[in-house]
Amino acid sequence: MARQEDFLAVRPSGNPISAKGLMGMFDSKDLVAESSELIKTHKIEIYGEIAYAVFTLNEIFSYKGNQNKDLSTYTCIFKNVNGTWKYSWMQRSQGSTDMTTWE
Amino acid sequence: MARQEDFLAVRPSGNPISAKGLMGMFDSKDLVAESSELIKTHKIEIYGEIAYAVFTLNEIFSYKGNQNKDLSTYTCIFKNVNGTWKYSWMQRSQGSTDMTTWE
User: Fold this and answer.
1) Which of A71, A68, A56 shows the shortest CA–CA distance to A30?
2) Distance from CA of A97 to the nearest CA of B (A)
3) pLDDT, tens digit, for every residue of A6-37?
């Protein structure tokens, strides 16, 4: 999905990463994605040209050779620009989501 | 600040807590707040009745007797209801934000 130019993702640490920085982690092979599965959508709200969504992904990936199986929860904000929904902002939790807490 | 009825905060773990649940932590004295200082606002965007803000707080608090000094980054979504801005949603990072990464 497209991103606005000032898009950033807030990492679990509280530090930001740009789309370019994230792509760089893939390009360097430090980060190797195996799968990313949508487990549950907690909320979607659309207000005209602005929307936000909250969901948990099951992400399997290797970081510098170590495999991670994360259940991470995301809050994402989208803006509709000329008919295309673009990511405006994203914040990702640690990979420790307990799905029973969302029931 | 007021909250919408379906407000939840996503904790660093990825698990949610309701406003009532958060208040319960204070009421039980498990959580004792000392101070909460706004260190930096990274972004504020307002689109009519919807807004979002991203900022880092320096929070000093005790949890079950152990003092924490956290630099936590928040993504918050607000909705204007009859002239009052209300919290719709919030996600909080770990307390490990490195402010130099936001420069």
Assistant:
1) A68
2) 4
3) 899 999 999 999 999 988 988 998 999 999 99
Domain A4-95 listed as CATH 3.40.50.300:
no
Give the torsion sign (CA, B58, B60, B61, B63).
Answer: positive
Residues of B within 8 A of A98 (CB-CB) are: 13-15
Q: Summarize pLDDT for A32-84 with one digit per residue, the tens.
A: 999 999 999 999 999 999 999 999 999 999 999 999 999 999 999 999 999 99
Domain residue spans of chain B: 4-95
| Cross-strand pairs, B77 | B52, B89
The residue among B44, B27, B103, B102 whose CA lies nearest residue B78 is B44
